[in-house]
Structures
1.
Amino acid sequence: YTKHCLELEGSLNPVKGEIEALKKVLSALAEREGEIRERGKGVLEEIRKMVEEMMNVLRQSERKLTEQAKRVTDDKLKVLSEQMKSAEMNLSLLEDVKDYVEQSLKTGSPQQILRSKKQMMERMSEITAGINVEELHPKEKADFVLSKNIKSLHHIGDIVTSTALQQCRVKKVGCFERLLEEMEISFSLSIEAPDSSLLCVPLSSLKCSLVPVGKGDQPIHTTVTTTSTDIGVCRIQCNPSTSGTHT
């Protein structure tokens, strides 16, 4: 009996080993679950902040477009207002001389009309000669429209996994700059996503190392930063120990 018990206890060792291994797996799964949930919360917060920033930019654009539309409207209305004042003034002069001549014809004696005929004719000619009706036609048109550019708003981003990041490729490498004091080099770099769009992700998701070709040296550590002006373009700084081609 004792022998059988010992044999069974010995057979339990692999089972106990599997139990411990599974406990470690469960612990790792639980830890990874927490990391994924935390990462999910972080991404949601990033989305919220990104949309908030876009809304602020949109509000600024709205104010700019509104001011621009008001300025164009006011400028056109100012031109029309000046034309209207000129047209109204000329109309008033013409109506005054018309009323004067008509009143003279109705109430004046033949002698009075004959005496003032030349003066009235000259006055009418003077007024009509000073008016160019063609110039008083509306110079401005309601010909301004809003030129929309909202392509980027229909697709403001994607959720990119590490697998998708591995499918990205370098789109453009900028000019190299040598920082003499630190003996470092610096260059800009942009990355293209699988859908041909420019990749724009947090710096924590990007790592870059330079490997000398055919020299068996260790990869060169680099520092990755963003540029303040170009979205999707990062700047790489490093201190290479060898010259030649690097990948």
2.
Amino acid sequence: MEEVAESYELDAQELELAAWIKKRSAKEAKRLQKMGVKCVALGVKNMSIVREDSIVLNRVEVDTSFSMNLIEQIMVAEDRTHVPGKAGYVYVNVLLLAKPVSATKQPAALVMPYVFDTAIDGNDLTQWVFINNDFERSQHIVQAFA
């Protein structure tokens, strides 16, 4: 039996938005690098919101085989940018810090773009689920200051 592969092509507006997101993420990575932070812009394949009981999870499919279980700290930028052509949606940079590979190394820093709908009640950007290219699922909670 012959397998039929499904494909999904982005329309012109989606391609433009994807380019806009990539550009903003690369700009943030470059800004951090100028400040001496060793970081990499992390590609994202898909973003969505998942509700589990009363919790809103920010689910991100990241374009890497890097184990997101190594993430030790998540910092969500306060700076928000309205997404062009998507009313109610906002772009934010998220900095992910992973465990250092050795005691003499700095933690790996990944800059991840994230777009979310501000109309979703209860989404305080503290609950995250990452899925990498190996389909490894990793869940994290941002501990807020009281």
3.
Amino acid sequence: MTAIDHILAAVLAAACVSQLFVTIDPERSTRLGFYGTGVSTAVLFGGLPLLAWWAAGRPLRAFGRHDWAGGPDAVLWAGLWTAALLILVLLVRRGALRLWLVSLYRAYAWIMPRTRAELAASWVTSLAAGFGEEIAFRGFLLWYAAAVLGTPGGLVVTGLLFGCAHSYQRLRGMIWAALAGIVLGLAYLASGSLLLVILLHASWNVASFSIGYIVLGGAERSTGEPARLPL
């Protein structure tokens, strides 16, 4: 490791922990503004580790603990995951689990898209977050923390930092994000594919925002019918 690695790890960790002290007022923030901030943050989180890796004289193709693509199993899992999410969104679009999902998603109503423009922006944010956060957390921080603390410790630490980075989702969202971070770390270690966990993360974000648009957009209409995705 180089001094650049130590500095970057400290900066990323501090950025995550600092989110615990940031308060976002839903009444004063717009969803499009929130999505724009998300894209900017994701670009920084993804770009800095790649730049630091290159500056340290290491090839980008060897970024992180494994390579980018992994083996053929990664392709299989990517296909199964994508198909499962697509089926889930289509079922929700047809009314499945509607009451439960409305209750669940109202806790995050202020970040869920209500118009097609917001939906499109949320998808851009989803893709950016999938790339940027996975490069930062699973690609760099897991590599760094595992070298310092061992693999189990690295998984826990990166999961906790991932939870802190999602403090805007309140305590329940932070807990789920921390657990998701550990699961994504395990998926990365098992598959050897950073691109796989990028896909898992980004596609889950897209599906989540899409479901929020369906159940909350429709819930605010006089008919009470689910909003239709522009598919």
